[in-house]
């Protein structure tokens, strides 16, 4: 068993304007750096053994701030926890996206489905947990992975059987979601805002 905490990256200018980023590589803004520092302080209250992230700049920068605060090296980028590909929806304002496509589960030309995102992210979580178990068995590690709102939403949707997150619930920048990852399961333990 591995405790794995998914942290949403800090704010970017596109988050602020409610524009869908997807794979567009937007850096953190000053508020986003403050989000990352606040997340790092909250996470410092516990014991953690490794920090990983998506390869996108906003996640890497958030993860580096957290790793520095925890005195840990930043691990390799994990491509399968990168943000959802939004296809034609990428770059749109959220209200325009919803008006055009209906909801986050809609089929959008060129976009990944929420199910596909959840599948790849959960597979990545299992790979990270397996590597952790190889390093420290029988002692369980606590691992932090900085990812994206769409990825975390897809994982929560998958492991909750579609009951979470609730409609309209926003996953805040800097929020964290702790999971227990075992060889055959992923279980949501808690969600908390870090700010």
Written overview of the protein:
Its EC number is 5.4.2.11. One of its GO terms (molecular function) is phosphoglycerate mutase activity. The active site is at residues 9, 83. Substrate binds at residues 8-15, 58. It is a single chain. With 195 residues, the protein is α/β, with parallel strands linked by helices. The protein contains six helices and six strands, in the order βααβαβααβαββ. The protein has one domain (2-192): Rossmann fold, CATH 3.40.50.1240. The chain has helices at 13-16, 30-43, 57-70, 94-101, 114-136, 149-159, and strands spanning 2-8, 50-53, 74-77, 142-147, 176-182, 185-192. The protein has a six-stranded mixed beta sheet with strand order 3-2-4-1-5-6, sandwiched between helices. Helix 3 links the parallel strand 2 and strand 3. Helix 5 (114-136) crosses helix 6 (149-159). The longest helix has 23 residues, at 114-136. 42% of the residues are buried.
Describe the structure using short key phrases.
195 residues, alpha/beta, Rossmann fold, 6-stranded mixed β-sheet, 6 strands, 38% helix, 2,3-bisphosphoglycerate-dependent phosphoglycerate mutase, EC 5.4.2.11, glycolysis, phosphoglycerate mutase activity, PG/BPGM_mutase_AS
Question: CATH architecture, please?
Answer: 3-Layer(aba) Sandwich
How many domains, in number, for the residues?
1
**Major sheet: order of its strands?**
3-2-4-1-5-6
State the distance separating the first and last CA atoms.
Answer: 28 Å
Strand content: 15-25%
Number of strands: 6
Give the helix proportion (percent range). 25-40%
Query: Number of helix segments?
Result: 6
CATH topology: Rossmann fold
Task: Return residue spans where pLDDT drops below 50 for at least 5 consecutive residues.
Answer: none
Radius of gyration: 16 Å
Computed structural class: alpha/beta
**CATH first level: which class?**
Alpha Beta
The ordered H/E elements are: EHHEHEHHEHEE
What is the arithmetic mean of pLDDT? 94
């Amino acid at each position: 068993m591995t405790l794995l905490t998914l942290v949403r990256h800090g704010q970017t200018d596109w988050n602020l304007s409610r524009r869908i980023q997807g794979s567009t590589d937007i850096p953190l803004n000053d508020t986003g750096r403050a989000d990352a520092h606040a997340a790092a302080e909250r996470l410092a209250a516990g014991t953690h053994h490794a920090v990983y992230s998506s390869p996108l700049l906003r996640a890497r920068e958030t993860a580096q701030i957290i790793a520095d605060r925890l005195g840990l090296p930043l691990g390799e980028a994990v491509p399968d926890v990168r943000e959802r590909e939004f296809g034609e929806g990428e770059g749109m304002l959220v209200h325009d996206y919803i008006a055009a496509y209906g909801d986050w589960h809609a089929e959008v030309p060129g976009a990944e489905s929420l199910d596909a995102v959840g599948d790849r992210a959960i597979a990545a979580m299992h790979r990270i947990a397996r590597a952790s178990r190889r390093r420290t068995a029988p002692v369980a590690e606590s691992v932090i992975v900085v990812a994206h709102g769409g990825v975390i939403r897809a994982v929560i949707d998958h492991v909750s059987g579609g009951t979470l997150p609730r409609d309209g619930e926003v996953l805040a920048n800097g929020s964290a979601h702790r999971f227990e990852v075992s060889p055959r399961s992923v279980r949501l333990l808690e969600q908390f805002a870090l700010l």
